[in-house]
Amino acid sequence: MGWFWADTAPAAPVAPHPMTRGNAEPPPSCPMHKKTPSPPSRVPDRASTPQGACPYVPPDTPTPASALTSAPTPALPKQGLLARLNPLNNMPMFLSNERAEKQTQDLPLSREQSTIPKGDGSLWEYPSPQQMYNAMLRKGYTDTPVDAVESMVSVHNFLNEGAWAEIMGWERRFSRGLSEGYKVCARGEENANKVLGTEDPFDTTTWTDKDIPPPKLLRFTGRPTEPTPKSQILQWAGWAWPSKFSSPPPFDRHDWFVQRCDEKGCAEVRYVIDYYEGEPEPTGEPVFYLDVRPAIDGPRGAAERAVRWGTDVWWRASGGVVREVKKAEEARKKAEEEAASKSRHYN
Fold first, then answer.
1. How far apart are CA 233 and CA 227, in angstroms?
2. pLDDT (0 to 100) of residue 94
3. How many Cα atoms sit within 13 Å of 80 on the Cβ side?
4. Three-state SS for 259?
5. Could you tell me which of 229, 245, 247 has the C-alpha nearest to residue 237?
6. Quick one: CA torsion of 18, 20, 21, 22, rounded to 10 degrees?
7. Which helix (H) or strand (E) holds 162?
8. Is 7 part of any domain?
9. Which residue of 80, 116, 194, 228 sits 20 to 30 Å from the alpha carbon of 56, by its own alpha carbon?
10. Low complexity: which segments have biased composition (predicted)?
């Protein structure tokens, strides 16, 4: 999950500063001070050059000593794995969109644009089915059926849009601080979206706050082999109480780094995402669950999770829904009585 391709490459390394050229004239006592005749001009004979020999042929004019001592040796470009990966997503900088060897059918080459903004304001792009297939081959999944790749890309894109919708929900609540977030969460999850003015919890584009910019996804990384503490606790709870907490472990885990801005400036917030697979629908369609929450990198992340979870539990446990219904019923009766009193006529 979470494969995006960023078209921007990291900045090139700064070249070393050249050394200053000094006086190239050697001292009189040095043998180099004596002039020697220049070697005759010659053209290299390619046929007589042994294999592995240096192809460079010295020029007729001797090279000054200063050039031999002061010119720095150019650094070779890095060709390691890390140099070929995009630091924003740990994916290859340029992944081939060409048909793979022994591929049995063509795959679409077009890429779908996401609704997730990058740090520069542009939108992340999802890989094309052909790029996805090539990436899976690079990872060793050579048994991937080609005719299933398009469906895999659709599911992949859908899950990432869902993950961003969850992050937008967190940012709408807490981008202005814990106190404002508490006001939004005080009446439980069922009323929070109404307070925020977003009826659709899966809305990934609406941002009603005009004073601060919406969040942006700066970078992300996949960590499928590093389970989160929460997922481990749930697995232990499932072992102890299988009837209540039993569930398979997450099949993937991602860390998304999001830019959050307020009146004081912008900061980076890390979100943790666990991907779970549920029981398929009766029609055979797969079901997935996402557990998206701020990482506990400090007191603020822990407080945000406690506020959102605690207020929802208290609202339901204390009968918040019943109180709301009772208030609505009382308001309705009062309105009916006022309307009846105004319509009375006396003889």
1. 10
2. 65
3. 4
4. strand
5. 245
6. -160
7. helix 149-174
8. no
9. 80
10. 63-75
Which stretches in the chain have pLDDT values below 50?
5-6, 8-27, 29-36, 39-71, 73, 76, 78-79, 81-83
Tokens 């697979």, residue located: 277
In the predicted model, what is the mean pLDDT of the chain? 78
Look at residue 325 in the predicted model and tell me its pLDDT: 81
| Residue 45 within any structural domain of the chain | no
Beta strands in the chain (DSSP E): 85-86, 91-92, 113-117, 123-125, 216-222, 252-262, 265-277, 288-294
Domain assignment present for 63: no
Please state the domain count of the chain. 1
- Check residue 239 and give its pLDDT: 85
Q: For the stretch 53-91, what's the b/e string if a residue is b when 16 or more beta carbons lie within 10 angstroms of its beta carbon?
A: eeeeeeeeeeeeeeeeeeeeeeeeeeeeeeeeebebbeb
Rounded to the nearest angstrom, the gap between the alpha carbon of residue 45 and the centroid of all alpha carbons in its chain is: 56
> Among 89, 95, 132, 93, which residue's Cα sits nearest to residue 112?
132
* H/E segment holding residue 173: helix 149-174
| Model pLDDT, residue 142 | 85
**Looking up tokens 């601080």, which residue turns up?**
177
Amino acid letter, 123: L
pLDDT of residue 82: 44
Distance CA 169, CA 199 (A): 11
Quote the pLDDT of residue 63: 46
Q: Are 130 and 107 in contact (CB under 8 A)?
A: yes
SS3 34: coil
Integer Cα distance of 194 and 200 in angstroms: 9
Q: Are 153 and 132 in contact (CB under 8 A)?
A: yes
Question: Which domain does 149 fall in, by range?
Answer: 107-321
Per-residue pLDDT, 91: 58
Three-state DSSP class for residue 302: helix
Residue 277 lies in a domain: yes
Nearest to 271 by CA among 240, 210, 325, 228: 228
Return the axis-axis angle of helices 129-138 and 149-174, rounded to nearest 10°.
100
User: Are 219 and 245 in contact, with CB atoms under 8 Å apart?
Assistant: no
Please give the Cα distance from 33 to 69 (Å, whole number).
Answer: 17
